[in-house]
Amino acid sequence: MIIKYKGQIVSEKVRLADNFFTRLLGYMFSRKPVFDDGILFDVPHGNSIHTFFMRFDLDVVFLDQHKKVIKIFRGLKPWRITWVYRKARHVLELPAGKLPAEVNIGDTLEVVNV
Question: What's the start-to-end Cα distance of the chain, in Å?
Fold first, then answer.
C-alpha cells in the first residue's frame, strides 16, 4: 500500500492493520520500525492510540472516512496515550520524521492499494 499527499509519495510498503491482532501488535516491542514506511490501522468506531512498549518515536495521523486529516502527532514519544478521536476511521503510524511538514489538519491523503 502507498500513501500519497498531493501526488507525492509519503510512504511506500505501508502495512494494513485491519484485524484484532494486527491492530493490537502494531509496532509494540520492536527495537526499530519493522515496516519501512508505516502501518495504516482501520478503526471502525473512532480510536485513540498508545505507545506503550515502544522504543522509538512516531508520527501519527488520525484520518476520517474520506482520509481527511483530523489530528496529527509529530514525534510522539514512547509510553504516551492520545485522546479518543471519534471521527477517526484510520490511523497512520510512521517512524518519526517521515510525515512531510506540509501535511496539516484538513488535508486529504490518498491511499493506493498495490
Answer: 5
The three-point CA angle 56-59-62 to 5° equals: 135
pLDDT in tens, 21-57: 777 667 666 666 665 578 888 887 768 888 888 888 9
* Residue carrying the nine cell digits 500500500: 1
Contacts of 57 (CB under 8 A, 6+ apart): 75, 76, 77, 78, 95, 96
Residue 86, all three cell numbers: 471519534
Distance CA 73, CA 109 (A): 16
CA distances from 12 to 40, 53, 82, 94 (A): 11, 25, 25, 11
* Amino acid in position 62: F
Cell numbers for 12? 511506500
Give dist(CA 34, CA 17) in Å, integer.
14
